[in-house]
Records
---
Amino acid sequence: MSFTTVFVLFPNVTQLDFTGPLQVLHRMPGATTHIAAKTLDPVPSDCGLSLVPTTTFADCPQADLVCVPGGFGVSGAIADAETVAFVRAQGAKARYVTSVCTGAFVLGAAGLLQGKRATTHWAYRHLLPEVGAIREDARVVRDGGVVTGGGVTAGIDFAFTVLAEIAGPEIAQGIQLALEYNPAPPFDAGGPDRAPESLMNLVSGFWTDRTREFAGELAALKR
Amino acid sequence: MSFTTVFVLFPNVTQLDFTGPLQVLHRMPGATTHIAAKTLDPVPSDCGLSLVPTTTFADCPQADLVCVPGGFGVSGAIADAETVAFVRAQGAKARYVTSVCTGAFVLGAAGLLQGKRATTHWAYRHLLPEVGAIREDARVVRDGGVVTGGGVTAGIDFAFTVLAEIAGPEIAQGIQLALEYNPAPPFDAGGPDRAPESLMNLVSGFWTDRTREFAGELAALKR
C-alpha cells in the first residue's frame, strides 16, 4: 500500500495537535509523511519548540490524507492566502481532509467544511457554523472524507480512528500497543462537562474573550 | 514562582515522549523551559520530524525538573558520554529527575536510578534492574524526586501528575481542560495485559528481539 500523509504547519501552531497524530500515522506501514510549510525554515510552535518542515507548500506532493493542526496561530493561518490556498488545493484531491482542534477553521476558510458535520476545540465549537460547518459535540467526527478532531489531545484519538480505517484495526491496535496508549489522566477535567464548576468559573472569561476575538477574525474573512 | 524545566534531546528520540510532556509543562505559570541537545542543530526524531533545541548541554541552566524522553535513539544516548554526563550533572541538583518511556535507561546509565522504584515502556520493564532500579508495573511511578513514566503516551499522564504537585491541582486541571485531555481511544489495546492475544502473538517476536539487543547494549555499559 502506498499512502501519502501531509501535515500543514504555520507559526504558533499548538505542537501537540500535530505531533500526536504524527506519532500515530507515521508508523502506518507503507505511508510517506510530509510536513509542509511556506518555507523550509523551522516553524515556531506555541511551546518554544521550533519544528522543521520536510517540504514547502510549492513542492509538496498531493496528499491522500491532509491534516491541519490548530492553535492560536490559526488566526494567522486563516488570514494567509498562501496557506489557505494550499489547504484548498490539497483538500480538493485528498481522500481524507482532516483537522485537529482549531485547525478545523483553516479547513473552513478553505471552503472544505461547507455543509459538513465537524468538531473542534470545545471552546470554539459554537463558531463552526461561521465557516459553513454543522457543529457536532464529539471528540472525533467523520462526515464522508472529512474527519475532524476536538481539542489538542483529541488528535491522538482522531489518528487511531483514521488509521484503523486506512490500515485496519489490527495495525491500529499494534501501534496503540507500541505507543502504550492506555491513558490514565490523574484528574477528570478534560472537558467543560466534567471540569469542576469552580474551574469553569475561573477560566470562562479567558475563553469567552479569546473566542469573541476569533469570531471577529472569522467575520473579517467574509468581507 | 520560578521553575526551570529541561528536556534532553538526542537523535532518533520518540518525539511524542517529549512533545506530550512539553505541551503540558510549558504552560505552567512561571515556568521556563529549555530544550537541550549537544549542539543547536535540529535533532532528527523517529517521525521524519526534526526538533530545534533552544540550548546546548554546555549552556543549559540548572533544571528544577529534568526530563529524558525515550525511543530507539536511547541506544545511542546511553553510549554517549557527553549526554550521560549532562543528565548526571543535571540530575544531581534537580528537584525532579524524570523520564518517559525508555528514557529511564538514560537516567539509569547516569546512575540516577540506583535503588529507585521506576517504570518504563512495558516491553523494557524487565531490564530496569540492569541499571539498578526496582521495576514497578505502572504508568507513572514516583520514588522521592524520581518520577518515571511508561511508554510514549504515558508521558502526558506523567506530566499532569508532576504539574499538579508543582503548581497545584487547580492549575493542572485548567491545563487539562485547555488541552481537552479527556481521552477516548477507539480500541483498548494499549498494554500487553489488554491487547488481544492474537496481536500479542503477532508482535512479541519483534519486542523480544529488540529488547534482547538492548539488553546487550546495557550490559556493554558495565564493561
---
Amino acid sequence: KMLPRIVKLAVTDVRFPTSLEQHGSDAMHTDPDYSAAYVVIDTDCGLKGFGLTFTLGKGTEIVVCAVEALARLVVGKSLQEIVSDFGGFYRLLTSESQLRWLGPEKGVIHLASAAVLNAVWDLWARAEGKPLWKLLVDMDPKQIVSCIDFRYITDALTEEEALDILLKAREGRKQREDQMLREGYPAYTTSCAWLGYSDELLTQLCADALGNGWTKFKVKVGADLEDDRRRCRLIREMIGPSNTLMMDANQRWDVAEAIRWVSSLADFKPLWIEEPTCPDDILGHAAISKALAPLGIGVASGEQCHNRVMFKQFLQASALFVQIDSCRLGSVNENLAVLLMAHKFQVPVCPHAGGVGLCELVQHLILFDYICVSGSLANRMCEYVDHLHEHFASPVVIRNGHYIAPEDIGYSCEMLESSVQSHRYPEGDVWKANTSKPEVKMDTF
Amino acid sequence: KMLPRIVKLAVTDVRFPTSLEQHGSDAMHTDPDYSAAYVVIDTDCGLKGFGLTFTLGKGTEIVVCAVEALARLVVGKSLQEIVSDFGGFYRLLTSESQLRWLGPEKGVIHLASAAVLNAVWDLWARAEGKPLWKLLVDMDPKQIVSCIDFRYITDALTEEEALDILLKAREGRKQREDQMLREGYPAYTTSCAWLGYSDELLTQLCADALGNGWTKFKVKVGADLEDDRRRCRLIREMIGPSNTLMMDANQRWDVAEAIRWVSSLADFKPLWIEEPTCPDDILGHAAISKALAPLGIGVASGEQCHNRVMFKQFLQASALFVQIDSCRLGSVNENLAVLLMAHKFQVPVCPHAGGVGLCELVQHLILFDYICVSGSLANRMCEYVDHLHEHFASPVVIRNGHYIAPEDIGYSCEMLESSVQSHRYPEGDVWKANTSKPEVKMDTF
C-alpha cells in the first residue's frame, strides 16, 4: 500500500462542442458545450489522481482559476495526512478564511473544490487498488463518518445517527454487493428527448432505447406547453403505460406557473417533475410538491442544489427525489452527508448524471448508497446520458438499462490524453477548427 | 443628457492589507484583506462608470476572471439600450445560458455581475447628473419596477404589488427627502469590537465612539463563550442600558448551539444576533428566531444571502432583520426587489456595510428605501465601519452617527487612481513591500 505525497496539481479547460447538435438542450440551457475543469494530481511515487467538475462551456476558465487558488492548500500534503482527517481537510478547502467569502460552499468556488476533491478520492482509490465504490463499501463506518463535515446539519443528522445508519445497513450488505456485480444498478435515459430534438429524432431514439432494454425515460419540458403536450404524448405512446416517464423543466417556472403547467401534463403520468422552479427555492418546491401530490406527481431536484445545507432543508420541508451531483456538491465527502440524510428522511436518491464524466463519477456513489445506506431500489434509478463516454479511460458500461459496477481502480474520471489535448480550450484542434463559434453564439443569445 | 455607448470594461484586482491589524476579524474570517474587483466602464462620449464587488483577499483574481467573462455581454451596448429594459439586461447577465451553470445567481459569478451592474448604475447616475439615490427617488415607479427581474419571486411579490407599494409611498416623500438631507440616515458602528481587538482597544474605541455621538454598536461573538461574555459585559457597561447593542456570530454555530450560546448572552440585551448559522439555512434561522423571540432577541442575516430567492424564503419563513448587501446581490436591480419584499412582509432593512466601498454604495439604497418604500426608521439603521474611505473620490460622510446623503453624482464607488495603482495585486507598491505575506498566511491557516 502506497502513501503518496501530492507534489503537483494541474488543471485544464476541456470543452466539447455539443451545442452544434443540440445535445443537452433544455428550456434554460439552449446551447451547452459540455465542458470540464479537469484536474490531474501528481505524487512523489508516480501514482496520479484524476478529477473534474462539469461546466457548460463559457466560464470554465473561471473554475480553472478557482482550482488554481485551491491548489496551494493541497500540494505538499500526503494522502495519509488528508484521509486520516478527511472531514477536516474538506473544511480546510471549503472554509479557508479569505476564499469562503466567494461562496461559501456554492457556485464557482464549490465546483472547484469538487474537482480537487474528486481527484483526491480518485488518488485514494488508486492507492488502495480499488474502484471508488468498493473503497467506500469496504470502509469502516467510523471512517466513512470521519469524511463528513457535519457543520450546519446536526439539527437533521448527527454523527451518531450517521454511524447508526451505516451499522444497521451492514446486514445484507454482501448480498447487495453480489446483486450489483451481477445485475448492475437501474438507470433511466435522458438521451431520447432533449428539447432541441425533432419529433422524428425523438421517435427514432425512443424506439432504439426500447430495443436496448430501457424502461425509464426522461423528457425535457417547459419552453412551450403545446409542444410539451405533443412531445409527452408521443413518448408516452412509444413507451406504453407501464414504463416510467419523468419530466424535467430545468428551472423554467415560477411556483404558480409550475403547478398550472405540470397539472396540464398530468395525463401523461410522470413519476416526477424535475426542477420546476429556482433550485434555491426550498419553500417553492415544497408548495409545488404539495399541490401535485394529489395528481400522483413527485418533485425532483438537486443538480443545482449547491450544498448539504440546502439538501437538508429540502428534506425538512417536503419529500423530494434527491438528485445528488458528483461535481455540484463537494465531492464524495458532501455526497455521503446527503445520502445519509436522505436515508434518515426515507426519500429515494436518484443521481443526476450526463454532461461529461458525471455518469462515470456518480455510479460509484449510488452503488455505495444501495449496498451500505438505503438497501433499497424502490423508486430509485440513476440518470444516464449517452454522450462523450468515449473520451474516458474507464467509460461506464450500460447493459439492459443498468449501470454495470466498475471494476477498474479509481473514480473513473481519467480522460484519454488525446481527448484532453484535442479539446483544450481554446488551443485544442477541435476549437481551432471552430474559432468563430463562441462569438457567434454570444451574439445570438 | 448624454446617451453614451459602452466601449470598454476594465477590471482590476485591488487589495488592502487589513489583516495586518486585525481589522475586520471575526469568528470565521480571522484575517481578511479587504479587497475588490474594481470595474471601470468607458464610453464613447468620455463619461465613465465605476463599480466594484467586495472580497476578502485571496480569490479576488477569480472574480476578476468572471467579470472578464461578463464584459462581452456589456461592451457595445448603449446606456439607453440597457436602461430601457434594465430587468431584461439583468437577466441577460445573470441567465446567460452557458454561464448560469456556474451559479445561477450565486457565488463568484453573481459577485461579478454585481460589480458590472454597479458600474452601469454609476454610469447612469452620472449621465443623469445625480447621486444614485436621487436618480432612484426621482424615477417613475413603473421604471423602478422595470429594473427588477421578478422571476422566481412572484409567489411573494408581483409586479403589480411592487408598483402599488411605490405609489402608496409617494405620500410624504418630499418631507422624508428633506429630512434625510437635513439629518441623514441613522447608522450603527461595527468598528469598536472586532474579534481580534484587545479589551483595551475595545474600551478606547467605545469611548471615542460615544464621544462622537454613536448610540448603536455591534460586537463580534462566537469564538469563545467566556470571552464573549466578558466583551459583551464590557461594551454594555460602556454604552449603558439605553443605547443599542447588536451581536454578530458570522455563521459560527449549528442551530442548537446558536440557541444555547445566544441565550447565555441574553443578559446583555442584544437587539439581534446576526448570522447565527449557515447563511443558506432558512429553516435554521427560523428555528433560532422562534427560540430567541421570548428573550426579546431578533435574528439578522443577509451579507451572504446570495439572491432575492433566498431573501424571499427568509421572509416567508420568519421575521428577520434584512441585511441587504450592495455587492452580494445583483446590484441595485436585485436590491430593489428585496426592499420591496421586505416592505410587503413588514420587516426592517438594516444594510450590511463595511469592507471596502460597501458603505459608499449601500447608503444610496437605504436612502431610497426610507424615502420611497418603507417610510419608516423604526428599528432601522445602516451599518458603518470606518476603514478605507480615504481611497474613494466621494467617501461617505458620517455626522452624529448618521450617514449624510451624498451630493456628488454617481454611486460613490470611484476609487482614487493613486489608491488603485498602489493596491493593485500583486504588482502594486503596497504588495511589493509585503510579498512574503500571502504565503505566510496560507501556511498558518
